[in-house]
């Protein structure tokens, strides 16, 4: 098994893997939440701000005051977001939005990850892993001679129902537009043993091709699921190619959501639960606004037994593979294809 990397088979870890582990260990030292653990959330936010600034990014804090939001509870447990509904009267939070100096104007590619965890969980995989990859992506992009038009977004209150991402999708759409979005959602848990990957109920009937690929691989939990729609099919293929070039240890399994972008896709997801699983993270508000988006995930509760539990700890993650996720994400952000060339 490769889900407990307290040691790296007697070898020194790659510097990228060591950095990623440092990020996760700091962020996942304790549960963090604007409502339930505000001091820990402030500590984590300050760390991310300082790391992005040190990498040469201009970081802005975007507070929001959201009222009467339909969302979910952030109490721990394995139930999916759609099964934990709640109406929030008022939520005050903040997103971090970062850009590289000299990257120009025009529509951007957004790379985003949520910072908060559920109550009682340190959230190493969900979602310190995603934030760590975002920080490594920031470092990689800062080394590009001509900076691409990429915006990094660190979202608040994902566990309350994608609240921060809703605010960011609206704001970024006004500020020059968004070409595409890459969501990093629980990307660090891998298991090479057969039978460790589960599928949602009804999944094989609705998504036969992706199900067949998982079955052919012996239901091993060794891949990153790349969820996309027609508008982001080219970007999904680019991520898979970039991951294969970086390391054969992280195959990308592509899953095309057949729903259209926009409100209709949202309504279909509410009516068809297996499709609704594909919108359980911060890419969904971008889809709902007609913006092409990807979700990268290790499939969370369909693979990771520590999901939303106190045992979601840094030692359970694979940092060498996380480095591959970061390399492929940076490459895709740079080369995000024109949606008109996708099929």
UniProtKB/TrEMBL annotation:
InterPro entries annotated for this entry? M28_fam, Peptidase_M28
Q: Name all Peptidase M28 domain ranges.
A: 95-190, 276-331
Q: Which Gene Ontology molecular function entries are recorded, alphabetically?
A: metalloexopeptidase activity
Quote the Gene3D superfamilies the UniProt record gives.
Answer: Zn peptidases
Any single biological process term in GO: proteolysis
- Superkingdom of origin: Bacteria
PANTHER family in the cross-refs: METALLOPEPTIDASE M28 FAMILY MEMBER (PTHR12147), PEPTIDASE M28 DOMAIN-CONTAINING PROTEIN (PTHR12147:SF26)
What protein am I looking at? Peptidase M28
Q: Give the lineage.
A: Bacteria, Bacillati, Actinomycetota, Actinomycetes, Kitasatosporales
